[in-house]
Amino acid sequence: MSQEAHETHESEAPHLDFQGTTPYEDYVKADVLTHLQHTLSDDPGEMVFLVTTQVMELWFTVVVHEWETAAKALRGDDVPTAVAALKRSVRELEALNASWKPLGQLTPQQFNSYRSALGEGSGFQSAMYRRMEFLLGEKSASMLVPHRGAPRVHAELEKALHEPSLYDEVLRLLARRGHAVPEEVLRRDVSRRYEPSPEVERVWTAVYAGDENDELARLGEALTNVAELVWRWRNDHLVATRRAMGAKAGTGGSAGVAWLEKRAQKNVFPELWTARSYV
Q1: Could you tell me which residues come within 8 angstroms of residue 178 by beta carbon, excluding any fewer than 6 positions away?
Q2: What is the pTM of this model?
Q3: Which of 110, 159, 230, 246 is most buried when burial is the number of CB atoms within 10 A of its CB?
Q4: Measured between alpha carbons, how far is 153 from 64 in angstroms, rounded to an integer?
Q5: Angle 91-97-98 from CA coordinates, rounded to 5°
Q6: Which is nearest to 237 in space by CA: 98, 109, 128?
Q7: Residue 161 belongs to what H/E stretch?
Q8: How far separated are the first and last CA of the chain, in Å rounded?
Q9: Residues 198 and 278 sit within 8 Å (Cβ to Cβ)
């Protein structure tokens, strides 16, 4: 090899010698992430369950970030930024929903082999998932109760409970743009679950009956894409649970499949769905 070729080869080689940890580790904290798995049974399938659940929590965190970004943008009448955040969250929700695939084929015997390791643990106790639900307008003060023992988490959830949801910000934007969103909707107690309104349904009917390239119509479609994937998440959860444990009571004292069936029947951003019947 010539001296010139040797020098070129050397210049193209990656930098391997660092004084401390690698810059990649400093940024990603991979060593922390890959040592958070502490299984409680001898069953090899528990590792898959634990890692998949932890990955779900990371996706919840990203989706909450996107929806909070969208809500802030809507408060500032910046629809393009809100739509961009919602579109990113659609891709993230697709990845989140794919997390069910490693768990979706569990047989009852496989799940029972490590189910006892969960104790009273249940997904409905996830604080970050609860923040997702609050942003969707699914508010419930009782859902703060499980987190009383974690002051920081409880404070974050309490703040989210009393803040307008993503959909509240959408409806306030529609009102500022001249649409007849009723005062009782605009001034409602945002710490309570959002309930469908016939007047809001008529607002969305008017939006969809107009120019489909209007930014409010594009916002409506971005929200509908989010709502569809949330519905698919709930249904995939239902199917995976039904397959693994049938109709038995869920962990944490929940009703299991019966509770998930009830959740799967509910639409997110309801008037966006019902208004389509009148366009």
Answers
A1: none
A2: 0.90
A3: 230
A4: 14
A5: 95
A6: 98
A7: helix 151-162
A8: 73
A9: no
